[in-house]
Amino acid sequence: KQEVTQIPAALSVPEGENLVLNCSFTDSAIYNLQWFRQDPGKGLTSLLLIQSSQREQTSGRLNASLDKSSGRSTLYIAASQPGDSATYLCAVRGNQFYFGTGTSLTVIP
Amino acid sequence: GAVVSQHPSRVICKSGTSVKIECRSLDFQATTMFWYRQFPKQSLMLMATSNEGSKATYEQGVEKDKFLINHASLTLSTLTVTSAHPEDSSFYICSALGTSGDTDTQYFGPGTRLTVL
What we know:
Largest interface: A-B, 19 and 22 residues
Helix content of chain B: under 10%
Radius of gyration of chain A: 13 Å
Strand content of chain B: over 45%
Number of helices of chain A: 0
Order of helices and strands of chain B: EEEEEEEEEEE
Shape of chain A: globular
Helix content of chain A: under 10%
Number of strands of chain B: 11
Largest sheet of chain B: 7 strands, mixed
Distance between the termini of chain B: 37 Å
Strand content of chain A: over 45%
Number of strands of chain A: 11
Largest sheet of chain A: 6 strands, mixed
Oligomer: heterodimer
Order of helices and strands of chain A: EEEEEEEEEEE
Shape of chain B: globular
Structural class of chain B: mainly beta
Number of helices of chain B: 0
């Protein structure tokens, strides 16, 4: 069974810092990997989707990479802002979607 | 585009009652919808996959007689928690499978907070 792990579980950084969130998965047979943002008590907002054939995707200050063979993905956030504070989830799609445990990010003004 | 709504957003009920949660794809048709449950400080756990016009597929450990799923149209799936108990209190999120370009992707609803007293 696919297992998705995210490290760190929580992260606190001062505003303006660049940061990296990590996601690892055990089964490399995936169709795609997706990064989501979840605000407290809210649903999920899709940030980036990387197909299994792709290496990275970029959107604004966000950059996600995928190394399928090693079962790893990173989400890079540049010049962090207090509004980036949220929980970030990665999910891989195999025969179903598997979610990671999330990284809770706090950006301190 | 690709908006998914859930209703209600929050519900409080007494133990033993049944609660129905609706999931709608507002501007696209979804033959497949998913229901997830999320406990505090935990990730989403897939409960079942709902296919329009057919029976839902439940994940291991999810009681199909307790969590009734109906996907009667291409834009609506419902989850009914029957005889709810306090341990069913959770955040329930649905998603609908849509197409972005040539890629299938999930679009998530805003979630429903269920509290069973």
